[in-house]
Amino acid sequence: MKKEFIFIGPPGSGKGTQTKILSKEYNLPHIDTGSLLREAVASGSEEGKLANSFMEKGQLVPIELVSKIIKNRLLKDDCKNGFILDGYPRSLEQAYALDEILSEIDKDNNVKPQVFYFEVAQEKLVERLVNRRSCSQCGAIYNLKTMQLKDETKCEKCGGTLTRRDDDTEEVATKRFATYFEQTEPLIKLYADRGLLTKLDASLDIDTIYKNLTGAIK
Ligand code: AMP
């Protein structure tokens, strides 16, 4: 049966780490709007430039652009058996847009997505973001505070260079939280009211969160 998963949680709550593992184990595409937008920025396209003007301020990129990116991605063949959405939708407006996209893409689709909410106290998160590094080659994510790396510039899995995202500074991270609480949190009630929400304690260690996550899959 088709599996549709949506992940909601504040920046730095560990959605990326968990969804990458889930994607491999369930053989489902991991669709992360933040990464898709960063690719557009790196390509230097007009769309990328527009997106960057919002991303560098910690604000949401306009819905028209994000909906177009998501719709094109969900139409690809590899989404036939389902998908994992990480970082989308991020506002009520986007959630309603997703309802429309899904009913358009798959007319007989009566699959209901399962929505996971990563719950974690905000105080821990700014520190996590500022210390987050990711591998420019394989995408592995590290935390310099909690993981003792021999070399803080090199990926221990593939030897690639570790980089810090431009928006993982304290200033932009603080704005990203404000955006999250204002625009994304209302989704929790929407999906809870629809009976689709599963809450996960995201303050636990990676293996325990993953166990709880897969144990809750319906
Ligand atoms: P993330 O990698 O998920 O932390 O996203 C990085 C940035 O990309 C966010 O701060 C937003 O500016 C932008 N972004 C990512 N996903 C969305 C989305 N669904 N809607 C609008 N903007 C987004």
> Compute the gyration radius: what is it?
17 Å
Class by SSE composition: alpha/beta
User: How many helices?
Assistant: 9
Stretches where pLDDT falls below 50 for ≥5 residues?
none
Strand fraction band? 15-25%
Mean pLDDT equals 94
Q: What CATH architecture label of the domain at 3-29 and 76-121 and 178-216 applies? A: 3-Layer(aba) Sandwich
What's the CATH class label of the domain at 3-29 and 76-121 and 178-216? Alpha Beta
**The CATH topology of the domain at 3-29 and 76-121 and 178-216:** Rossmann fold
Main β sheet profile: 5 strands, parallel
Q: Write out the distinct hetero groups bound to the structure.
A: adenosine monophosphate
Categorize the overall geometry: globular
Q: Report how far the terminal alpha carbons are from each other.
A: 11 Å
Give the ordered list of helices and strands.
Answer: EHEHHHEHEHEEEHHEH
Strand numbers in spatial order across the main sheet: 2-3-1-4-8
CATH superfamily of the domain at 3-29 and 76-121 and 178-216: P-loop containing nucleotide triphosphate hydrolases
* Beta strand count: 8
Helix content: 40-55%
